[in-house]
UniProtKB/TrEMBL annotation:
Protein purpose: Key component of the proton channel; it plays a direct role in the translocation of protons across the membrane.
Major localization class: membrane
UniProt gene name: atpB
InterPro entries in the cross-refs: ATP_synth_F0_asu, ATP_synth_F0_asu_bact/mt, F0_ATP_A_sf
The keyword Oxidoreductase appears for this protein: no
Name of the molecule in the record: ATP synthase subunit a
Species in which this protein is naturally found: Humibacter ginsenosidimutans
Localization, UniProt: Cell membrane; Membrane
């Protein structure tokens, strides 16, 4: 149990608390807090799940897609909160686990809807001459079943790591210019004003990326399910 695991547990507890408080006393005339909560839930349900999968299939995979979005969002935001400043999604372990779950859900959805025909539709592209299948089938397998979970993992990890590192480097530069260079009477230390401004910009950008990556991971997972169950695939 290290600092990263403690932050993960804290995020999980906070998410449970937020959803419990948001649903325990809902009213027909909602308060501002209830309105904000319903907007967030509605955005994920309608904007990501139902718009991509439709209501019938969307309801089946709604819990796990909800979990993806809010868990990733909570973990990402911890990287910008003073005192924590560490996004657990910037370490490859958690994104890898979620990518494997998404990959398993994609295969499960295809097998549930199509049975063994799912593998035929995934590996053998319709309309392609049969003698090209030995060449194209391995490529389809690689792109569909290997590349997808890898890119889901790396996209989330690298985006959160890069944004956090840029902000940290700017804050460290600010500390160096103000408390080392300027403290010695060197006016070059005033460059710390610029590095501090860049640090604020990168912090705001990191917040935007935190929300965007939660959205991207959830909607890509939904799109992969849709591709698995669609008849043309």
């Amino acid at each position: 149990m290290n600092r990263v695991m403690l932050i993960r547990v804290l995020v999980l507890v906070l998410l449970i608390l937020v959803f419990w408080l948001g649903t325990r006393n809902m009213k027909l005339r909602p308060s501002r807090i209830q309105t904000a909560f319903e907007y967030m839930v509605g955005f994920v349900r309608n904007g990501i799940i139902y718009d991509t999968l439709g209501e019938r299939i969307g309801k089946r995979y709604e819990p796990i897609l909800f979990t993806f979005f809010f868990l990733i969002l909570g973990m990402n935001l911890m990287g910008s909160i003073p005192g924590f400043q560490l996004a657990p999604t910037a370490l490859i372990g958690l994104p890898l686990v979620m990518a494997v779950v998404s990959w398993g859900m994609f295969i499960y959805a295809g097998m549930r809807e199509k049975g063994w025909r799912f593998w035929k539709d995934s590996l053998f592209v319709p309309g392609v001459p049969w003698f090209l299948y030995p060449l194209l089938a391995p490529l389809e397998f690689l792109s569909t079943f290997i590349v997808r979970p890898v890119t889901l993992t790396l996209r989330l990890t690298m985006n959160m790591l890069a944004g956090h590192m840029l902000a940290v480097l700017c804050f460290l530069a600010t500390q160096f210019f103000f408390f080392t260079v300027l403290a010695d009477g060197n006016l070059l230390g005033l460059l710390g004003i610029g590095s501090f401004a860049f640090a604020i910009v990168f912090t705001v950008l990191d917040l935007f990326v935190a929300v965007l990556q939660a959205y991207v991971f959830a909607i890509l997972s939904a799109i992969y399910i849709q591709l698995a169950v669609a008849e043309e695939h």
